[in-house]
Design brief:
This protein is mainly alpha-helical. The chain contains six helices and three strands. The protein has one domain (about 45-200). About 50% of the residues lie in helices and about 10% in strands. The chain has a three-stranded mixed sheet, with helices on one face. Helix 5 runs antiparallel to helix 6 (about 170-190). It is globular and about 55 Å long.
């Protein structure tokens, strides 16, 4: 049975409308939902900066240190405790694994005890910080020869690490050995007459 022109035109029109409706419905159903904005796992520098401890007589710790990490909280607490125990100030936190202890005595008798050291974020950096603190605690220039003072400052640092339960093997032990061998070799080049018995093991 054939359809007249009007009927067939209507069927085609209806089919086209249904197809368009299905396409629009499908676009709604299959459209991917808008993904929520991903937040970075790394906290902003401003947040890290705000969590840094306030240390008297010291510049703020360097940026980028996560002071909420349990291990870093431990290092921060040791820094605060050591600077509270001993009358000295941190002049600068160094970026390198090196340090220095300085004593300035003024004409009126005032003394300025300061150190420069890396901010402790690892056992090795903490050891270097404690080594410089040890120079002031033991007395700069009190122990002679100079290589003996270096040894005693390192012993102070290692003893404090043990006191706080921080690992002294690995990088710390290697740095101690290398530093002392350098100090002893330097003393030998300068013609030291009598090497302290404690330092014999570090002879080249």
């Amino acid at each position: 049975m054939s359809l007249d022109f009007r009927t067939s035109t209507q069927l085609v029109f209806d089919f086209a409308r249904e197809a368009e409706a299905e396409r629009s419905l499908g676009s709604v159903v299959t459209a991917a939902p808008v993904a929520p904005k991903r937040t970075s796992r790394r906290r902003s520098l401003a947040t890290l900066r705000a969590s840094a401890p306030t240390i008297a007589d010291a510049p703020r710790p360097p940026r980028g240190i996560d002071h909420e990490r349990p291990s870093q909280r431990r290092f921060d607490a040791i820094v605060l405790e050591m600077l509270a125990r001993h009358p000295l100030r941190v002049k600068r936190w160094r970026n390198t694994l090196s340090g220095i202890a300085v004593l300035r005595i003024y004409r009126d008798g005032r003394q300025d005890r300061s150190i420069e050291a890396p901010y402790p974020t690892s056992a090795l950096r903490l050891a270097i910080f404690l080594h410089e603190v040890g120079h002031h605690v033991l007395g700069l220039g009190v122990h002679r020869p100079r290589c003996l003072e270096e040894y005693l400052a390192w012993r102070f640092a290692l003893d404090r690490l043990a006191e706080f339960g921080v690992e002294t093997e690995g990088p710390v032990a290697r740095r101690f050995d290398r530093s002392m061998r350098y100090a002893v070799a330097k003393a030998m080049r300068r013609g030291i007459r009598r090497l302290p018995a404690e330092l014999a093991t570090f002879l080249p």
